[in-house]
Amino acid sequence: MQRVPIYVHTTDPISWTGVTGQLTGRPEVRVLAEAEAAEAAVTLVVVDSLTPQRVQTLRRLRREQTRLVLVPSTIDDGQLSAAVECGVVGVVRRGEASGTRLVEVILSAARGEGSVPADLLGRLLNQMRQLQREVLNPRGLTLGGLSAREVDVLRLVADGFETREIATKLSYSERTVKNVVHGMTTRLHLRNRAHAVAYALRNDLI
After folding, report:
1. Whole-angstrom Cα distance, residue 80 to residue 72?
2. Domain limits of the chain?
3. What is the dotted CATH code of the domain comprising 4-127?
4. Mean pLDDT in runs of 10 for the chain (206 residues)?
């Protein structure tokens, strides 16, 4: 089995020694030195709590195309949301961060899968439901940022229909269809219809 290259980013040398000590020598992973950090498939970010400064660190690491696993001492609902927004795919509380557990989450991250403790996942889902109910639904939007009307139009665009045909099928005017597409592409900074369809497909919206 090919070993997953990982980098351990910590806020203090004691934490670094503790985490790398649990992972060095494990056959599933290869711990990289700081000079090799850019080669990491997965980066473990070990923190006491997710302060604004640590959020900036996550954003910077995300731009380096590495999958992020957060290892916090504590994490509240707001910090959990911030972590997800920064691209974190795995969370392991420091009190639960045995070598075996860390390797499990690292391997999941390397496969592109998420791994979050059940109670944190439940809290995250509750936040998403609250966001949908209190913010998005009143505006006619989905979690992906599209309204039901925009989804209907995009599905037909993806099926190859022209503006006139879409208008007929949805009982809209052609002007309405054009306005829907224009409003959506402008709001989401998409280039054109094809880009809008690609966005919707990537986010499982159509």
Report:
1. 10
2. 4-127, 140-202
3. 3.40.50.2300
4. 91 90 92 91 93 90 87 88 86 92 94 83 70 66 74 87 92 93 86 80 72
